[in-house]
Amino acid sequence: MFAVFGGDYMKYEDVNKELLIKFPDFLIDDDDFELPYIVAGNFQRFLLDSYNNGEEETYKKGLHFIEELHLSDCDKVRELATIGYLESFFDWSDKDILSNDLGSESKKWWLELNLFWCGKIGYVGESFKQT
Protein backbone atom coordinates (compact mmCIF):
# COMPACT_ATOMS: atom_id res chain seq x y z
CA MET A 1 0.00 0.00 0.00
CA PHE A 2 1.24 3.46 -0.84
CA ALA A 3 0.42 6.87 0.52
CA VAL A 4 -1.30 8.90 -2.13
CA PHE A 5 -1.44 12.67 -1.87
CA GLY A 6 -3.19 14.79 -4.43
CA GLY A 7 -3.43 11.86 -6.85
CA ASP A 8 0.31 11.15 -6.90
CA TYR A 9 2.58 9.04 -4.77
CA MET A 10 4.19 10.98 -1.97
CA LYS A 11 7.60 12.38 -2.76
CA TYR A 12 10.08 13.40 -0.10
CA GLU A 13 10.22 16.98 -1.34
CA ASP A 14 6.42 17.27 -1.07
CA VAL A 15 6.00 16.24 2.58
CA ASN A 16 6.08 19.77 4.00
CA LYS A 17 3.76 21.10 1.30
CA GLU A 18 1.25 18.37 2.07
CA LEU A 19 1.61 19.02 5.80
CA LEU A 20 0.62 22.66 5.29
CA ILE A 21 -2.37 21.67 3.15
CA LYS A 22 -3.66 19.20 5.73
CA PHE A 23 -2.83 21.38 8.75
CA PRO A 24 -3.29 25.05 7.83
CA ASP A 25 -2.93 26.05 11.51
CA PHE A 26 0.57 24.55 11.62
CA LEU A 27 3.15 27.15 10.66
CA ILE A 28 6.55 26.44 9.14
CA ASP A 29 9.23 29.12 9.29
CA ASP A 30 10.52 29.98 5.83
CA ASP A 31 14.05 29.12 7.01
CA ASP A 32 12.90 25.62 8.05
CA PHE A 33 10.78 24.71 5.02
CA GLU A 34 13.63 22.80 3.34
CA LEU A 35 14.57 21.06 6.62
CA PRO A 36 11.99 18.26 6.99
CA TYR A 37 13.48 16.83 10.20
CA ILE A 38 13.25 20.23 11.93
CA VAL A 39 9.66 20.56 10.69
CA ALA A 40 8.90 17.06 12.01
CA GLY A 41 10.05 18.05 15.50
CA ASN A 42 7.97 21.21 15.36
CA PHE A 43 4.96 19.22 14.17
CA GLN A 44 5.33 16.86 17.12
CA ARG A 45 5.08 19.85 19.46
CA PHE A 46 2.03 21.05 17.50
CA LEU A 47 0.39 17.63 17.98
CA LEU A 48 1.20 17.53 21.68
CA ASP A 49 -0.25 21.00 22.13
CA SER A 50 -3.35 19.83 20.26
CA TYR A 51 -3.62 16.79 22.52
CA ASN A 52 -3.07 18.81 25.71
CA ASN A 53 -5.67 21.37 24.59
CA GLY A 54 -8.28 18.69 24.02
CA GLU A 55 -8.12 18.98 20.22
CA GLU A 56 -8.35 15.23 19.72
CA GLU A 57 -9.37 15.46 16.07
CA THR A 58 -6.21 17.39 15.14
CA TYR A 59 -4.04 15.08 17.22
CA LYS A 60 -5.45 11.93 15.60
CA LYS A 61 -5.37 13.49 12.14
CA GLY A 62 -1.67 14.21 12.73
CA LEU A 63 -0.98 10.61 13.70
CA HIS A 64 -2.87 9.51 10.59
CA PHE A 65 -0.57 11.77 8.53
CA ILE A 66 2.45 10.01 10.06
CA GLU A 67 0.86 6.67 9.20
CA GLU A 68 0.42 7.83 5.59
CA LEU A 69 4.13 8.70 5.49
CA HIS A 70 4.98 5.23 6.77
CA LEU A 71 2.96 3.75 3.90
CA SER A 72 4.77 5.74 1.22
CA ASP A 73 6.62 4.00 -1.57
CA CYS A 74 9.61 6.31 -0.99
CA ASP A 75 12.33 5.09 1.41
CA LYS A 76 13.23 8.67 2.40
CA VAL A 77 9.62 9.46 3.29
CA ARG A 78 9.29 6.31 5.41
CA GLU A 79 12.57 7.09 7.18
CA LEU A 80 11.37 10.64 7.86
CA ALA A 81 8.16 9.22 9.33
CA THR A 82 10.13 7.12 11.82
CA ILE A 83 13.30 9.06 12.58
CA GLY A 84 11.80 12.52 12.08
CA TYR A 85 8.23 12.31 13.24
CA LEU A 86 7.95 9.34 15.62
CA GLU A 87 11.32 9.78 17.27
CA SER A 88 10.32 13.35 18.15
CA PHE A 89 7.88 11.86 20.65
CA PHE A 90 10.70 10.30 22.69
CA ASP A 91 10.38 12.74 25.62
CA TRP A 92 6.59 12.68 25.80
CA SER A 93 5.40 11.31 29.13
CA ASP A 94 2.21 9.71 27.71
CA LYS A 95 3.92 7.22 25.40
CA ASP A 96 1.28 4.57 26.13
CA ILE A 97 -1.48 6.84 24.86
CA LEU A 98 0.55 7.58 21.74
CA SER A 99 1.19 3.89 21.13
CA ASN A 100 -2.52 3.12 21.38
CA ASP A 101 -3.42 5.89 18.90
CA LEU A 102 -0.88 5.05 16.20
CA GLY A 103 -1.77 3.27 12.98
CA SER A 104 -0.49 -0.27 12.53
CA GLU A 105 2.61 0.58 10.47
CA SER A 106 3.55 3.51 12.72
CA LYS A 107 3.05 1.33 15.80
CA LYS A 108 5.43 -1.27 14.36
CA TRP A 109 8.13 1.38 13.96
CA TRP A 110 7.30 2.95 17.35
CA LEU A 111 7.97 -0.39 19.03
CA GLU A 112 11.21 -0.69 17.06
CA LEU A 113 12.30 2.75 18.25
CA ASN A 114 11.58 1.73 21.84
CA LEU A 115 13.72 -1.39 21.47
CA PHE A 116 16.54 0.81 20.18
CA TRP A 117 16.17 3.38 22.99
CA CYS A 118 16.28 0.57 25.57
CA GLY A 119 19.48 -0.79 24.04
CA LYS A 120 17.89 -4.08 22.98
CA ILE A 121 18.81 -3.59 19.32
CA GLY A 122 21.74 -1.83 17.70
CA TYR A 123 19.84 0.16 15.09
CA VAL A 124 16.27 1.00 14.13
CA GLY A 125 15.07 -1.68 11.76
CA GLU A 126 17.28 -4.44 13.13
CA SER A 127 14.28 -6.49 14.26
CA PHE A 128 13.02 -6.58 10.69
CA LYS A 129 16.31 -7.77 9.22
CA GLN A 130 15.86 -10.96 7.25
CA THR A 131 18.13 -13.82 8.19
Protein described:
- The chain is mainly α.
- It has one domain.
- It is built from six helices and two strands.
- A hairpin with a 2-residue loop joins strand 1 and strand 2.
- The protein starts with a strand and ends in a 14-residue tail after the last helix.
Count of helical regions: 6
Alpha-carbon distance between the two ends: 24 Å
Mean pLDDT across the residues is: 88
Helix content bin:
40-55%
Report the major sheet. Answer: 2 strands, antiparallel
- Based on secondary structure, the structural category is mainly alpha
Annotate the secondary structure layout.
Elements: E1 4-5, E2 8-9, H1 15-22, H2 36-52, H3 56-70, H4 75-85, H5 95-101, H6 104-117
Antiparallel strand pairs: 1-2
Helix pairs in contact: 2-3, 2-4, 3-4
List the defining traits of the structure above.
131 residues; mainly alpha; two-stranded antiparallel ribbon; 6 helices; globular; disordered N terminus
Short description:
The protein is mainly α and 131 residues long.
